[in-house]
């Protein structure tokens, strides 16, 4: 108890919560969740400078950022370059875009890929892709119905 009396002024200077010190000093640890003294000393913090603890004040809101100007990227208009290169593939300042090769230099399977999306009737109901498409179609339908309501 003598040790706690000596610590009280120091803790008050540090702006610590000393409300639990009398409970620890009296030995009434039944009202505490822990008998450790270190749990009783809690540093007070305020939400904002000059704010009151626990009033829900967070960080100060910063003003809205001004409109950001959009950069206009140059569009390639040279037809010879559009046919012979993959325009926009070079991400570095120096160098040039990837050049296209002859069709014979690419693998055969590349030309047999089916890029058209399959209809829902063509998908197997036991696959995850089928149920994702069913869910998406249902959500689109619900959104369309909700948009037609007056209120």
Topology summary:
Layout (H helix, E strand, L loop, with lengths): L1 H12 L2 E2 L3 H5 L16 E2 L35 H6 E2 L11 E2 L28 H21 L3
Antiparallel strand pairs: 1-2, 3-4
Strand order of the largest sheet: 1-2
Tell me the Rg in angstroms: 35 Å
Stretches where pLDDT falls below 50 for ≥5 residues?
Answer: 34-42
* Backbone shape: flat
User: What is the tally of beta strands?
Assistant: 4
Mean pLDDT equals: 74
Distance between the termini: 68 Å
User: How much of the polypeptide forms β-strand, as a percent range?
Assistant: 5-15%
**H/E element order:** HEHEHEEH
Short summary of the structure?
The chain is mostly helical and 151 residues long. It is built from 4 helices and 4 strands, in the order H-E-H-E-H-E-E-H. The protein has helices at residues 2-13, 21-25, 79-84, 128-148, and strands spanning 16-17, 42-43, 85-86, 98-99.
Report on the structure:
It is flat and about 55 Å long. It has helices spanning 2-13, 21-25, 79-84, 128-148, and strands at 16-17, 42-43, 85-86, 98-99. With 151 residues, the protein is mostly helical. Mean pLDDT is 74; it is low at 34-42. It has a two-stranded antiparallel ribbon.
Which features would summarize this protein structure in a list?
29% helix, 151 residues, mainly alpha, single chain
């Amino acid at each position: 108890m003598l040790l706690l009396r000596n610590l009280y002024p120091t803790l008050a200077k540090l702006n610590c919560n000393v409300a639990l010190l009398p409970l620890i000093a009296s030995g009434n640890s039944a009202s505490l969740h822990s008998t450790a003294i270190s749990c009783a000393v809690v540093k007070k913090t305020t939400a904002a400078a000059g704010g009151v603890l626990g009033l829900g004040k967070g960080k100060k809101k910063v003003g809205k950022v001004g409109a950001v100007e959009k950069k206009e990227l140059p569009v390639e208009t040279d037809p010879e370059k559009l046919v012979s290169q993959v325009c926009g593939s070079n991400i570095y300042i120096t160098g040039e875009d990837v050049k296209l090769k002859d069709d014979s230099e690419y693998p055969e399977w590349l030309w047999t890929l089916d890029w058209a999306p399959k209809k829902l009737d063509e998908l197997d109901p036991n696959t995850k892709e089928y149920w994702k498409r069913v869910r998406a179609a249902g959500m689109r339908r619900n959104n369309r119905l909700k948009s037609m309501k007056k209120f």
